[in-house]
Amino acid sequence: MAHIAVSVSWLGLTLGLLALGITACTTDSPAMTEAAYRAMKVFGDWLVVPIALVSLGTGVVLSLGTRWGLARHHWVWVKFWLTLVTLCLSAFSLRPEINGAVTAGVPDISLVAAPVVSSSAYFFMTAVSVLKPWGLTSRGRKHRAQERKAVDAASARPTI
User: Fold this and answer.
1) Which of 23, 60, 80, 157 is most exposed by smallest CB count within 10 Å?
2) pLDDT tens digits for 39-60?
3) Is the pTM of this model over 0.90?
């Protein structure tokens, strides 16, 4: 439940960044552009990275604590890597871009594009979580075979 709550928070935060980026790019008011970018800076400085880290952490804990495993199913593996990539892009690309926009005070279309891309990634990860496509990884197949051998060995023992 914690993973879902934090992941939904990350998506909501990104949609908020998108709304602010659109506002900054479409307004005729330099003061409104500045205010939108300053609000984005607050989100970027205080919320994006911590929420992304908690989402990554709860996802890893959840995967390791359930039958899905971290590297047993392709869909979990894809979500892990997408989360890691979006976290790094948020920390090392989005935040500096926001800081530059605050300093420049002029509309920056990349601050609309970045939340569109990240929101699309989060919606994709949500769909993958629900649909669970692509089957087992080679590691998952090995793990399943070992489980079957253990069950077969246990059921082959004579009972007294």
Assistant:
1) 157
2) 999 999 999 999 999 999 999 9
3) no
Write a three-state SS string for the chain.
Answer: CHHHHHHHHHHHHHHHHHHHHHHHHHCCCHHHHHHHHHHHHHHHHHHHHHHHHHHHHHHHHHHHCCCCCCCCEHHHHHHHHHHHHHHHHHHHHHHHHHHHHHHHCCCCCHHHHHHHHHHHHHHHHHHHHHHCCCCECHHHHHHHHHHHHHHHHHHHCCCC
Q: Would you call 125 exposed, middle or buried from its count of C-beta atoms within 10 A (0-12, 13-18, 19+)?
A: buried
Question: For residue 135, is it left (φ>0), alpha (ψ between -120 and 50) or beta?
Answer: left
